[in-house]
Amino acid sequence: xxxxxxxxxxxxxxxxxxxxxxxxxxxxxxxxxxxxxxxxxxxxxxxxxxxxxxxxxxxxxxxxxxxxxxxxxxxxxxxxxxxxxxxxxxxxxxxxxxxxxxxxxxxxxxxxxxxxxxxxxxxxxxxxxxxxxxxxxxxxxxxxxxxxxxxxxxxxxxxxxxxxxxxxxxxxxxxxxxxxxxxxxxxxxxxxxxxxxxxxxxxxxxxxxxxxxxxxxxxxxxxxxxxxxxxxxxxxxxxxxxxxxxxxxxxxxxxxxxxxxxxxxxxxxxxxxxxxxxxxxxxxxxxxxxxxxxxxxxxxxxxxxxxxxxxxxxxxxxxxxxxxxxxxxxxxxxxxxxxxxxxxxxxxxxxxxxxxxxxxxxxxxxxxxxxxxxxxxxxxxxxxxxxxxxxxxxxxxxxxxxxxxxxxxxxxxxxxxxxxxxxxxxxxxxxxxxxxxxxxxxxxxxx
Length: 447
What we know:
By secondary structure, this protein is mainly α. 80% of the residues lie in helices and 0% in strands.
């Protein structure tokens, strides 16, 4: 019997490039996967999954009411001033109740506070539904519900922020903030479009009904959350407790820097109020919807590619750089004369704003003691809500005095200058490193 193998040609030696060529697609795929959102909080925490889904459901319902309420006011009064007054009745309760809500979040079980306020918000939506079904709907309940909803949301927000480090491991907090941002941006882009269709084609009653149902679903999801009682050393809710939180924030210059940078960026460079006038100056009225959507689109892009954020440790530096990038992008939008370039700049601005938000949230969650998280979240709510509101006033006033373009580009440059000055005055913000910061290390040891 012949040995066939003896006549076979010798096997070719493997090419030295073969392993590299075979591994290259894997490495390339790995790089792309590294950009995707880090799902570790979702995989490891059932409570986080419940909170994330409840927030997504509620955001769609809330946008239904956000669209339906001004539409109903317009139909009932025909007055732009009456519609604009909604913002005024919402602002004061938000500012007052945000601070007290932070003290409540530290002193009470956060789970009960979240469920109670969520149920209250659902009941207020039911009031809007009953009013809409009346033969002649009344105007005053719309303002009362708007004010009370703003107050309850302000009480709830610090508890939602403070409970996050209870349900997510310390090393996954940056990823959790990024996933929360993804939920917010998806809701911010898709929900208004859905809300507009429901209001236009189904009517106000169906919009309010859907909102009530989303709150019911959110409460059902939140019911399974584990208890989150107050820390042993938590203070009772009082003005003294609120002042204690403010003193702590003042003592932590890196924390103070995050609040100050965000407030400066929003106050000096928020362009939303003048976008309708900017569209006219660009001779492109058709672009107004795109102008409004461009910043949320930039935020969504960052959220969808946020995997890299978990590997960054210099959170303060990223807050400063992204806030400066926001200002530069807004300035470029004000100086540009082509619609597509303005849209691109505003998209970049939205991306920078989201990056800043992710790293601000990571710094807060990884360093603030459990007993103070609610009160510090209340202070953060002030900077988060007051900055854009005041920025709208600044933009509109500057546009009336100096012109629309000047209002936009000058605000952007002023933002860059203010952020640079704050970084110089508060060097602890730039030095912050999650791997070495004493407060971050202490929270990591606490679990």
